[in-house]
Amino acid sequence: MPTGLHLRDARQQLFDAAERVLLRDGPTGLTSRAVTDEAGCAKGVLHRHFADFDAFLTDLVLDRAARLETQASALRDAAGTGTVADNLTSALTTLFGPIPVAIIPLITFRDELRTRLRIARPGGGIAILAQATSAISAYLADERERGRVAADADIDSLTLSLVGGGHLLFADRDSPPPTTTTVKRLVTTAVANAVRQQPT
Fold first, then answer.
1. What is the DSSP string of 10-45?
2. Residue 150 in contact with residue 144, Cβ under 8 Å?
3. Residue 58 lies in a domain
4. Within a domain: 183
5. Is 122 within the bounds of a domain?
6. I need a surface site. Which of 25, 50, 186, 187 has the fewest CB within 10 A?
7. Residues 84, 139: contact at Cβ < 8 Å?
8. How many domains does the chain have?
9. What are the φ and ψ backbone dihedral angles of 4, each rounded to 5 degrees?
């Protein structure tokens, strides 16, 4: 049986292949065979690097969740600049990009994956959503310290509104992603009573 193409960075190429399958076929189409076919390699390549398919998926999710750390840092760096609404609009659009949104139902559908993620990140909830929640909460707290968000603002409730609403906006695979105007309308409504008046 042919072994397919040689993979110089097999893990990363398998992760990238899994993303393409996930975006094209959804969580139910993501199988080990679909991933290795997409990567152009033999099925055994995946099992040389991962104990089983759930181990592969766990590492895939953790790798993609770690990428959101960079985006979370960029959001916190934006504190005190621009407007709070614009910063949050940009953050939600990035944090709920196609790959994070596709990964969330994958976690929901696979019990063993959720179990392994809980072991890997105790108390982290559903990876990706947990990352988005932490990023938005930390940013709002930073803005509150700067006086751009009211001192008595309920950061936890604001965060849940923004993350939950943002996820709902982006989660429909059958519709185009929401426009920036739509996302900003959600953000502006959610933070209307908490954000100090800022120049536009």
1. HHHHHHHHHHHHHHHH-GGG--HHHHHHHHTB-HHH
2. yes
3. no
4. yes
5. yes
6. 25
7. no
8. 1
9. 80, -165
Which tokens sit at 142?
A: 């930073």
Per this entry, what is the length of the chain? 200
pLDDT digits (tens, 9 = 90+) for 129-166: 888 898 999 999 999 999 999 999 999 999 999 999 99
**What residue numbers bound the domain in which 75 lies?**
68-191
CB atoms within 10 A of CB 62: 15
- Tens of pLDDT, residue by residue over 48-78, are 999 999 999 999 998 888 888 788 888 999 9
Backbone phi, psi, residue 149, to 5°: -120, 140
Q: Which residues pair with 195 in a beta bridge?
A: 149
Can you read off the two tokens belonging to residue 88?
């949050």
CATH number at residue 114: 1.10.357
Tokens of 183: 């996302």
Paired tokens of 3? 């072994």
Q: What is the pTM of this model?
A: 0.80
